[in-house]
Amino acid sequence: MNLKTPPLSRPPIRILIVDDEPDLVELIALTLKRMQIESDTASTLSAARAALLLGRYALCLLDLKLPDGDGMDLVEWIQKEMPETPVAVLTAHASIEVAVRALKLGAFDFLTKPVDLTVLRQVVTGAIRLASGAPETTSGLIGACPAIEDLKAVIARVARNQAPVHVHGETGTGKELVSRLIHTSGSRRDHPFVPINCGAIPSELLESEFFGHKRGAFTGAVADQLGLIRSAEGGTLFLDEIAELPLSMQVKLLRFIQEKSVRPVGFAQEVAVDVRIISASHKNLRDEVAAGRFREDLFYRLVVIELYVPPLRERLADLALLAQAIVSRLALGRPITLAPGTLERLMEYDYPGNVRELENILERALTLADGDVIRPDDIRVRRGRRPQAPERAPDRPLPEYLNDLEREQMRQALRECHGNKTEAAKRLGISFRQFRYRMKKLGLG
Fold first, then answer.
1. Domains of the chain with bracketed CATH
2. Would you say the pTM of this structure is higher than 0.85?
3. For residue 312, how many other CB atoms are within 10 A of its CB?
4. Mean pLDDT on 301-314
């Protein structure tokens, strides 16, 4: 007698719907049922908390206006008590700012009312895919200094939601690498990652390249073109050097972000697009807004979550790890070693071009090396740090002069950390309490 072990049945996928509109709840529940997904419902915050404590849900669909309070409180509660549960908030179309605030608090995504069922299915599918597990987020980010460890932790958190992310850092620090790690670690990893260098496309071609066009829409349009945004459908759109976009194109990009749809050149109808947006720039977007070169409303749509990638000179403790990894990749399997003194020579330089410049230096050294050893003389960089301009003697009392220097250092740290006092204190090597005391003493707040 041949007895077969019955296959283990998987627990059903279940979603919690938190809303006090019966008709909307019924519509969402019916849509989920057609997707073979079960659902529970709650019409108040207290009922939602009770349900979340009793069951495990692949997603919580949450209205922000409930009879017994603000749904934003539940978003915060879920992030503290059960951060593994994704939350998608439901909000009126005129309340996008509220949805952006929810994303900053950790919400997975948002849907506007009346709910588009196609968008609903996309959000639900993304949440389920996220729950299925993501690959290691930090495998491509080399380094163990505190700043990089913090960055790895933030990437892991950011990868779990759909909020727009802005990556800020100097040229060559690895902003695209960070953006790709966010993509490959999240629910969109099986869909395209489409990078666009906003400063490399001629201004007259921007609209066509971004949104696509219909054949015959203009001279030279010999065939339909999908456009870069639609080619990222289901995945991530990476807008590199976003500060280089002209103001006229910034208006059109803002509309796309708000409406989640595009109208290709020559088309009469708009086409819905589901993409996550990650932007990057070596410029400080806040300074660009202040100078009138970047739209403030677009800034707030793009910079929901901000990541800072430190320059190489601020993480020289990682130089040995980076150098070995780069050499191993460039050597294509050859056992290359660094001779005594080579690393010391590399440490003497301040790398204005950051990791990208380090790669160029090591690639040149590998070409010049005699055999399988890179020696100090193979490293062609100038010795010493870049010379600083000599300071003229102060023309005021020394204590006043030193206070001014300290005040400027603290302001600079706050600018670079985008107003985050805890991070600014770390950058200056002092405690948060010391930083707060010095700010008060120096009249900075």
1. 14-131 (3.40.50.2300), 151-308 (3.40.50.300), 313-378 (1.10.8.60), 398-441 (1.10.10)
2. no
3. 24
4. 92
